[in-house]
Amino acid sequence: MSEKRTADAIIVGGGVHGAAAAYYLAKAGVKDVVLFEKEYLSSGGSGRSAAGLRHHFGTEVNCRLSQYNIECFPTLEQDLGGELKLEFTQWGYLWVAYSQESLTQLEKNVTLQKSLGIPSEMLTTAEMKKRWPYFNVDGMLGGAFCGKDGHINPQTLVMAYGRAAEKLGARVKTYTPVEKLLASDNKIKGVVVNGEEWSAPRVLLTAGPWSTPLAKTVGLDIPVTPERHNLLVTEPIEPFECPMTLCLDDGAYFKQVPNGSFFFGRDDQDEPRVLESGNSAKFLEGVTESVLKRMPALKGVRVVHQWSGPYDVTPDHQAVIDWTPIEGLWLNCGWSGHGLQFGPSGGRLAKEMFFGEKTFVDIHNFRLARFAENDLFMEPAFI
Ligand SMILES: Cc1cc2nc3c(=O)[nH]c(=O)nc-3n(C[C@H](O)[C@H](O)[C@H](O)COP(=O)(O)OP(=O)(O)OC[C@H]3O[C@@H](n4cnc5c(N)ncnc54)[C@H](O)[C@@H]3O)c2cc1C
Predict the structure, then answer these.
(1) I want to staple 206 with a disulfide (CB 3.0 to 4.6 A). Which of 18, 263, 339, 366 is the partner?
(2) Are 280 and 129 in contact (CB under 8 A)?
(3) Which ligand 1 atom lies nearest to the CA of residue 336?
(4) How far apart are the first and last CA of the chain?
(5) What is the pLDDT of residues 39-54, one digit of tens each?
(6) HEC string of 195-217?
(7) Is the CB of 317 under 6 A from ligand 1?
(8) Is residue 210 within 8 Å of 310, Cβ to Cβ?
(9) At what angle do helices 343-354 and 60-79 cross, to 10 degrees?
(10) Contact assessment for residue 205 and residue 70, using Cβ atoms and an 8 Å cutoff
(11) Going edge to edge, which strands form the sheet with 120-123?
């Protein structure tokens, strides 16, 4: 018997946001959810992520969503069935500043976070040195730290959401690219896959930076563009719970993950703005220099591999979570460099939007129209 090509909701893109949405919708009783992923689950930005989880944001809505995310992570492995290890750790997240401007921004962010009940704190360099004696704090002015922040395995996170959604009845179709969206009379009708039409009254676009060309197939322009970012992984060394440490001034970061490997990353605005991955020796040299300055103890640790993946960037580095002018088509994309950790809240919002419920936080600022209205909503804590 041929497969039924109708659904109550179609989700396009199997990164963390698509997989979490499938899970939340199926769990809430939506009978027929179909998720299409062009390769394997987590093959986009999600699986290339450094998977830093943090409360440290400078806008209230992101702080509130982070509180929900970080409430979910400790029990998520069990909640999603317990088959895949999510490697969740809470070794903290530290932002360091070398300039007065960055320090002032961190202080502002921490004041906001504290007002919302987030246990963040400002640290002097002496306090940092006491907690992490292996840091070189020369030239630093201070930092912002939250000990409830941490790490999760980004690939197993997405796969666990996908599997849990399937167990609840969702159809997760990997290696199945959506060729185009279908709309008529300003209403979404479905998608085209392998030349065949799949119909659904609601379609959620969670295709990261690929959302832009897909939206274009129904005449919708969304200002989400790709930005290539690199990351390298070292051989494992004895785990000593080094927090994710990020410098606002040069965009470099490092952290240890549970198997003992270190991840190094760094913002480089000269990287090509493309969807394709690709690595350069320039990244390896630049990031190593930045990180070793702060962590001289890592000198001599060997690099095992390097990868890159696309951020899906908007002009204000904030996501787009909104219904579009095409009835039934909604968006959750544009998460820039911080979207992995928003999987739980993105999934919850997708479910609330599907049912027309009041969302658990006010998401007005994430609306698509803000770009046309020139009412950008900058997130100061982005890399
Ligand atoms: C190097 C790097 C480091 C990062 N570090 C962090 C971090 O520390 N913390 C954090 O929270 N975030 C981080 N991010 C950002 C984070 O990875 C992204 O914001 C997030 O994963 C976006 O998830 P998504 O589900 O929206 O998109 P994606 O994960 O990009 O998923 C989109 C999916 O859509 C699929 N797709 C595309 N076209 C089609 C089609 N036509 N049909 C079907 N499927 C399609 C793609 O294959 C892909 O799997 C980092 C990203 C990178 C690249």
Answers:
(1) 18
(2) no
(3) 19
(4) 50
(5) 999 999 999 999 999 9
(6) CEEEECCEEEECCHHHHHHHHHC
(7) no
(8) no
(9) 100
(10) no
(11) 120-123, 142-146, 93-97, 244-247, 252-256, 262-266, 225-234, 303-313
33's CB contacts (< 8 A; 6+ apart) are 7, 8, 9, 10, 11, 22, 25, 26, 165, 169, 170, 171
- Crossing angle, helix 154-167 and helix 343-354, to 10 degrees? 30
Give the Cβ contact number of residue 367 at 10 Å: 16
Q: What 3-state class would DSSP assign to 167?
A: helix
Counting ligand 1 atoms within 8 A of each CB, the residue from 178, 275, 340 with the most, and so the one to mutate, is: 340
Atom of ligand 1 at shortest distance to CA of 19? 25
For ligand 1, atom 31, name the residue with the nearest CA. 15
d(CA 347, CA 88): 19
Distance (Å, rounded) from C-alpha 72 to C-alpha 379? 23
pTM check: above 0.90 = yes
Q: Is 66 in the pocket of ligand 1 (CB under 6 A)?
A: no
Residues of the chain with pLDDT under 50: none
Helix residue spans in the chain (DSSP H): 16-27, 45-48, 60-79, 100-115, 125-131, 154-167, 211-216, 281-294, 343-354, 369-372
Nearest to residue 311, comparing CAs of 284, 338, 292, 287? Answer: 338
From 11, 46, 93, the mutation candidate for ligand 1 (largest count of ligand atoms within 8 A of CB) is: 46
Tokens 């000198």: give the residue. Answer: 299
Question: CB–CB of 24/348 below 8 Å?
Answer: yes
**Whole-number pLDDT of residue 362:** 98
In 3-state terms, what secondary structure has residue 306? strand
